[in-house]
Amino acid sequence: MMRKFLYRFLLFSLLPLLTFLVLEIRIRTKHTQLFQEEKLEQAFRHKAGAYQWVNTIKHPKKVFLLGSSSIKYGLSCRELNRLAADSLAFINLAADARDPIETYFILKQLDLSAVSAMYMGIDPWIYTRNYYRNRHQYLLLDLPFTKALRYSKDYDLRLFAKRYKALFHFPDPDHPAAILQTSIPADFGSVALTKKPVNFNDPVSKKFRLNEYGWSELQFTYLQKIVSLCQEKGIAFTAFYPPRRMDFINDYESNCRDIQASFLAQLQKSGFTKQIKSSILSLQPGNDSLFADAYHLNKAGQETYSRYFFSFVQEN
Amino acid sequence: MLFNSLDFAIFLPIVFILYWFVTQKNWRLQNGLIVLASYVFYGWWDWRFLSLLFFSSMVDYVAGLAMMKEQQQRRRKWYLFISIACNLGLLGFFKYYNFFIESFTTAFSFLGTPFHAGTLYIILPVGISFYTFQSLSYGIDVYRRKLEPTRDPIAFLAFVSFFPQLVAGPIERATHLLPQFQKARTFEYSKAVDGMRQILWGLFKKMVIADNCGQFADQIFSQSGSYSGSTLLLGAFFFAMQIYGDFSGYSDMAVGLSRLFGFDLMQNFSFPYFSRNVAEFWRRWHISLSTWFRDYLYIPLGGNKKGRSKTIRNTFITFLVSGLWHGAHLKYLAWGGLHALYMLPHLLKNKTAKKETAIAAGKLIPGWKEGFSILLTFLLVVLAWIFFRANSLADANQIYSEIFSSSFFTIPEVLPKKIFLLLVFFLLIEWLGRHSFYAIEKTGSKGPVWIRWAFYYLIVLLIFSEGGRTQPFIYFQF
């Protein structure tokens, strides 16, 4: 009886196991092909649909602000344009958890002829594989098998299903093509944060989990591609650390020294030679009331930081 | 440890192999293994509460033996009292201490007499309400001389801590489960296959139905102030599906797992959303708890034998206590109270104990009258879930007022087509299997092997491809 049960169970499991094995071997052996620029572009280019309005802005000196949520909520383009007396047109292309890969493919779809400068906020944790859970599921194919196994245990039991879905579906069916947006948003892509962000409660060191998942080399490669794209088009590129609350800075300096050193080493390894400018606002104590949480400025913080940032742009 | 986790996927085969290949010749050894495995399973969540589980079990074990030896009724009563006091004392402290302190503070402040007592930071031990009730039933049954107390402490520990049903039931009666620990178990192929099938269906209910519906229910209930009445009702519908998929899915897995180890657990859900009235709903929903309250609270209070007014009183008490069992919050009391109100017409007509007939017996679809009754009952149940799911009583009131406003007649802002398709598939299978122990008991066992296997593969595929974001089982918190 038991023998029959085990035999039947193994037989039943054979098909899923074999499928699993074949797919994992395919992912492993085809990694380079899977992550060719053309392939990735298929997965990401639809994101640019939401930025069609950028091409409708006719200004000879556009300035792009790039990065993740800290930039989206941290800078107000309307305020910056006012300070520049409309001599520059600031446009915010940052979004929640946006990474260099997505940013690069959005930039590739846009008309860059009138862009004079790009400023990119650098959040080191964006460059980790741990952050793939906030990413397009195609990137889950970049996890080696053992890390994928761990990942599915830590974060998402459906990870393997997502990997295989990503392997066969282009573009990802869960991410339908963004609706083409041609009307210019009120603050040119910037948004004032009125609510408290919900998923930023862990200590900063837990955002990296480098021992478990490591850095995402792809992100560094695409950061470098953004720099190269700017060079090719004659656009000035500046990288900077967005403002942080004082307790975050203290926490980061005391607990993430090795991580920061490793991050800089990775940047260098990928060929990124630019200096990342520190944020002036972060260095000033007593600015806690300007933050919604340790990483995100609130509305008042956005206005204040925009003024600091404009001086920073002028100095550059 | 969650049933739908990798940890459990490793844990289960190890225990299964040890159980059937290493300890199979000695059922006492098998019981020892079950105790060990169950304590590892429970300790995986928080090992500190193992002592609580052990203490609760031992109190009832010792009280049971003492009641057996004692002939004097007064002393027997004392032993029962000690058992109940210890169990309910622990439950009361861990689950209700803060609730009662806060309620007293509010009540005294309302009366103009300040009352100061600090609340405590108390972690609620997972499943405490389940194993406490299971353990309590033993003491009460021994006191009532319905059950011969066991002298075997390992069998008793295994009965209380049996890992498939430890943290979310079914709340088994000692009269049913304990004897199964006191005899040899044999491996039965058909039972094990049936168990696997039920586990598969339970996983589908949990990971595909509950987790997907849960995401939308959470979205709607977390911003209830900004949605129309129609969307809020849809949110309540999603929650109804979530809690059913979640809890009955867990029960299916518990029953299926037990079968793998040669045990039979009671049916905990019998297609409650196809009930034709609320009384029937309560005979089909969380059966192990409903019957527990019936046998150990409603009937001792007098049940329906002491006149209509006392029957109504006893029903309200039972439903309110049942509400409080789910959580230390006024909203659960309101939920229980609303269900008691729903029962009122049945109580006034003396119809609660009506003998059940099969749903749409011999028909593929119900007649219009039966269909209408099913839909009306479902709607009443969904409306009651709003109290259960809302963040507070104030939120629930706001949701009800929005639902009963003109905004109910607008198109809902949230309409996830994929989830609706999955729900149609799910409800169809449940409807077709409504006369079985669980939905795919017969659906999955008829026909040629390749068709059955194709059906199972489809379920596996749906679990892997359509499973929602993993969420802990709702009933663990009770």
Q: What features would you describe in this structure?
A:
The complex is a heterodimer of chains A (316) and B (478). With 316 residues, chain A is α/β, with parallel strands linked by helices. Chain A has one domain: Rossmann fold. Chain A is built from 14 helices and 5 strands. A 5-stranded parallel β-sheet of chain A has the order 2-1-3-4-5. In chain A, helix 6 crosses helix 14 and helix 7 packs parallel to helix 11. Chain A starts with a helix and ends with a helix. Chain B has 478 residues and is an all-alpha fold. Chain B folds into 2 domains: 181 residues, no CATH class; 206 residues, no CATH class. Chain B is 67% helix and 0% strand. Chain B contains 18 helices and no strands. In chain B, helix 12 packs antiparallel against helix 13. The longest helix of chain B is centred in the first third of the chain and has 38 residues. Chain B is globular, with a radius of gyration of 23 Å. Classes of the chains: A alpha/beta (316), B mainly alpha (478). The interface between A and B is medium-sized, with 18 and 21 residues.
Key structural traits:
heterodimer; A: 316 residues; Rossmann fold; five-stranded parallel sheet; 14 helices; B: mainly alpha; 2 domains; 0% strand
